[in-house]
Amino acid sequence: MKTIGIVPARMAASRFPGKPLHLIGGRPMLEHCFERAKMFGRWDGLFLATCDEEIREFGESKGYPVIMTADTHTRALDRVAEAADTCGMDLGEDDNIVCVQGDEPLLGPDVIEAVVAPLEKDDGVKGTMLGVPIVDEALYLNPDIVKIVHDLNGDVMYTSRSPIPYAKEFTPELGAMRVGGIFGFKRNFLKWFTETPESPLEIRESCDSNRVYDNGFKQRLAPVPYRPYFSVDSPEDVALVEAALEDDALWGKY
Question: Model confidence over 75-116: pLDDT tens digits?
């Protein structure tokens, strides 16, 4: 069983154009993501996937393996699927493809391990999703943050930009979780996903994971303990990441 990681990135992000190369702590955000992803020691391959020459030039200057993809993809997983098919590796249908989003500059090898482990240990698991605890009410209410509801077996039931599960008053003990930008797929399941039309709840919620649940399939939640962990969705998020880097155990190791 092989496990490869693909970091998708494009300059034309609608809410933050040029985001992958925006400096955070003096380094492009994409560098934080790729260097931290490299710290996971069990990759059979780790690639940068992009349609932009600026990102290709940056990646090659850092020695990252770069895969050029079509410029028509609007979703990261479509770019990842194309890159998996053209990465030059002999991949089987049950090999693991991990999407490591290029806007997660606080990721670490432990969160990648959490996403990969269920794919390796349970033959019934075809897809996984990183789950990060929400301890701040502002994140719970923020529509940019995709929240997760899961069942007692740890399978994701639904994702939403609304504050779920509902609570009259938010507390960390609610157990609310959000989607972290790392997803694992068996290769055949990723193919199914990208070849299946958008589903009604995917469109309504603007959460593409709902395509899985609308069609009766599951993803296994990969929860990690709480720590400062911020995705970069807008320029305002950069300050949050830079503040968190001051106490980050991996900062300074790359």
Answer: 999 999 999 999 999 999 999 999 999 999 999 999 999 999
Strands 23-24 and 27-28: antiparallel
Residue 59 lies in a domain: yes
- What is d(CA 109, CA 42) in angstroms, rounded to the nearest whole number? 10
Residue 62 lies in a domain: yes
Answer yes or no: pTM beyond 0.70: yes
3-class secondary structure for 58-96?
HHHHCCCCEEECCCCCCCHHHHHHHHHHHCCCCCCCCCE
CA nearest neighbour of 33 among 226, 180, 239: 180
Q: What is the pLDDT of residue 74?
A: 86
Question: Residue 25's domain is classified under what CATH number?
Answer: 3.90.550.10
Structure tokens at 65: 């393996």
Cβ atoms of residues 159 and 146 within 8 Å: yes
Cα gap 180→230, rounded to integer Å: 9
